[in-house]
């Protein structure tokens, strides 16, 4: 209830304990899960350096420790995708990370990988079952991100994998192009993306 009314999920007690640290140290697994889903920082430490995981392990709450480890892996998965670290993606998925985990804004690792030139990360996530048409809280798919960032190859990879071209509003893409100081290269990329989305340019399936 407090979170719904805007309570700060990272508010601390006198010793710097967050609600998540307290919940995990007391064995409140449902509370801990709710806090994590609402963006609680798993790595936060109190003034003595104690973390939520330390509290859970110290008091023998194995189930909570498992929840924290998995969610920590999920958070790291998002970071690895955003930076295009393929080896890290592989390790994290092998250790239980959810390929479709979401951040506070509803973005998945695939959304993060589609921002930049992380083509191998995109392919890797898709090969491991990432849902390509998942929408964030603003209704954007990974393809929308790729198109908005003029990521031509990323858009091609996503469409070849089956992403819905209609998820991208071409009028928005054109209006965005008019508002920014585009270089000739940007204008060419935007035109290529428009043609891809309209089906004028063929896309090959990801290798």
From TrEMBL:
Record key words, sorted: ANK repeat, Repeat
Top-rank lineage group of the source organism: Eukaryota
SUPFAM superfamilies: Ankyrin repeat
Alphabetical list of SMART domains matching this protein: ANK
Classification via InterPro entries: Ankyrin_rpt, Ankyrin_rpt-contain_sf
Presence of keyword Repeat: yes
ANK repeat start-end pairs: 15-47, 72-104, 105-137, 138-170
Keyword Flavoprotein: no
Protein's recorded name: Ankyrin
Organism of provenance: Hymenoscyphus albidus
């Amino acid at each position: 209830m407090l979170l719904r009314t805007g309570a700060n999920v990272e508010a601390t007690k006198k010793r710097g304990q967050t609600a998540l640290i307290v919940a995990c140290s007391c064995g409140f697994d449902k509370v801990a899960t709710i806090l994590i889903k609402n963006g609680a920082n798993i790595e936060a430490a109190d003034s003595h350096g104690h973390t939520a995981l330390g509290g859970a392990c110290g008091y023998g709450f194995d189930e909570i420790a498992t929840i924290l480890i998995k969610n920590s892996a999920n958070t790291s998965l998002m970071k690895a995708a955003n930076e295009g670290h393929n080896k890290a993606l592989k390790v994290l998925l092998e250790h239980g990370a959810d390929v479709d985990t979401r951040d506070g804004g509803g973005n998945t690792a695939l959304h993060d990988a589609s921002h930049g030139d992380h083509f191998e990360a995109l392919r890797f996530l898709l090969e491991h079952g990432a849902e390509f048409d998942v929408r964030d809280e603003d209704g954007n798919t990974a393809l929308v991100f790729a198109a908005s960032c003029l990521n031509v190859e990323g858009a091609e990879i996503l469409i070849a994998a089956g992403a819905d071209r209609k998820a991208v509003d071409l009028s928005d893409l054109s209006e965005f192009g008019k508002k920014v100081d585009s270089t000739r290269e940007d204008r060419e990329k935007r035109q290529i993306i428009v043609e891809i989305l309209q089906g004028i340019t063929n896309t090959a399936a990801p290798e």
